[in-house]
């Protein structure tokens, strides 16, 4: 059907229902208010490839969940009818499409590409935009579209709500009108309900109880059954829309015991798959079925209390911010981004200080695991006899920690130098990765763990397999996506990195600018520092420069002269001598200050700044040393330095000879 020639001021009346007509009328009024022109072609609805990728990346979980719920409908019901299923976000931007576009003219197809905007503001009255504007399912007939360009099709759309009932997006089926349209709207509603149910199950099924209920025992497995998630204490923490419709009751934070008139203990111990007849709210006869958490950890709340909850907000660089122009790093970030939504392990290799852990953190925070912790362990610094307990926990959990692996549950487990693990621990780690369980060897008790492993190493793990230091099967388990980070000296984006590091550690009152002279000193090939050392140098220079611009003489002498035996990671030279140590909490005298040239030493302000820096390193070292009761490995780990560096610092502090 051709669009009418003259713009109309009102939508056509249909015989569908009064409320439908009112909905369309209200939408047209909104479009008039937005100043839309019915003759417009919504060309500005198209966005760049980069924006599309970011959008899809952000909504990865919704896209995957929708795909798995929608495709069976498409394959079984819609495959032979020419139609397009679209998933859009809460702003109406298309995230993904399934189906085919043959029903539309070739020149129109771009408007249905990923990233296209179907909000009412851009595309006038249309199923996606109007469902979003009203929060309701809607079918928009051909002539009901506000823009003439869209009047060749019929769209049916239903909103999708997240587990907190926030509008998350919308699902739409569009075709050129030859589908049985009443069915299509029903089907879209059903698909969106399936997606919502799947979101609840994915979010809560692992650790909380799920309860499905319905009026009839035969349709407990339908999308239209009520679905509730409740916690250990019987508090309802999520419910699908259907649950509230069936009970006509707001369920958020209600007690499952009170709602269903059954004791919590009985409900939790109901045999799985066996429906129970309940009298909901004292008036509705319903059949209910309980599914216990997949993860038994949820059954031990006291235990769970000890697991860390991620509260920090991530302030480090994102994957995008890591790519500053070096081709090799850009390739790594691109490949990593492609697998954030997948369960693939990562293996990051590169010299010390190349930014492996920084990369892993950026990756973790870009992944769907970001709400959970990233736990890190460096196998090279933990004594052999302690490593198993550190990783897998103590046999008697009351004695101590649940172990680092369980702490990473649902998050990321970053393991440095896995080849340093004793063979027995390698075997246990392999078993954990294969079975997704941590098992207590004595009692046989086990705990499910869902972790993404990121392994990191300064040397080639493959070579360590050859020398027999690393189990080959463990290597293959952990080497999913292999990334090699280039050392600083080979990076082509050194200047951009220096600016980035400088910005990230300078005070707001300090100048943004770095002079050509400073930049060329820090990038000259003769200076062999790695990224960690570069950061240290900048921190020292900033401390020296105060509120002034960094000048060449603010840089440590070593950057200029490169003496041997300099350990920039500690900020001390071999010449540094701290002669007098007081109690472990305080150092009072530093006789020789590194990094100051002769004329700088005459400047009392600079001397004081340098002293302060030395004091803070010494204080930090001593605090950690005292806290870990003199345990070298643990202190070194807490400070993020090698055991050798720690020994050196302690020697300089006069604590060890
Ligand atoms: N791109 C970056 N942006 C900001 N800081 C960075 C970046 N790359 C590295 N750093 C900083 O450099 C230091 C070393 O980085 P990181 O610990 O990630 O390196 P690593 O390769 O894991 O080191 P190691 O092998 O010695 O454990 C850290 O202080 C980190 O904050």
Bound small molecules, deduplicated: adenosine-5'-triphosphate
Decide which structural class fits the backbone: alpha+beta
Assign the CATH class of the largest domain: Alpha Beta
Give the integer mean of the pLDDT values. 79
CATH architecture field of the largest domain: 2-Layer Sandwich
Query: The CATH topology of the largest domain is what?
Result: Beta-Lactamase
Tags for this model:
single chain; 5-stranded antiparallel beta sheet; disordered N terminus; alpha+beta; Rossmann fold; Beta-Lactamase; 26 helices; globular; binds adenosine-5'-triphosphate; 657 residues
Q: Would you kindly provide a written description of the structure presented here, covering whatever features stand out?
A:
The protein has 657 residues and is of the alpha+beta class. It has four domains: 18-194, GAF domain (Beta-Lactamase, 2-Layer Sandwich), CATH 3.30.450.40; 205-294; 319-486, P-loop containing nucleotide triphosphate hydrolases (Rossmann fold, 3-Layer(aba) Sandwich), CATH 3.40.50.300; 494-652, no CATH class. The chain is built from 26 helices and 19 strands. A five-stranded antiparallel beta sheet has the order 2-1-5-4-3, sandwiched between helices. A five-stranded antiparallel beta sheet has the order 8-7-6-10-9. Strands 12-13-16-11-17 form a five-stranded parallel beta sheet. The longest helix is centred in the N-terminal third of the chain and has 24 residues, at 181-204. The radius of gyration is 31 Å and the shape is globular. The termini are far apart. The protein binds adenosine-5'-triphosphate. Adenosine-5'-triphosphate binds next to α13, α19 and α21.
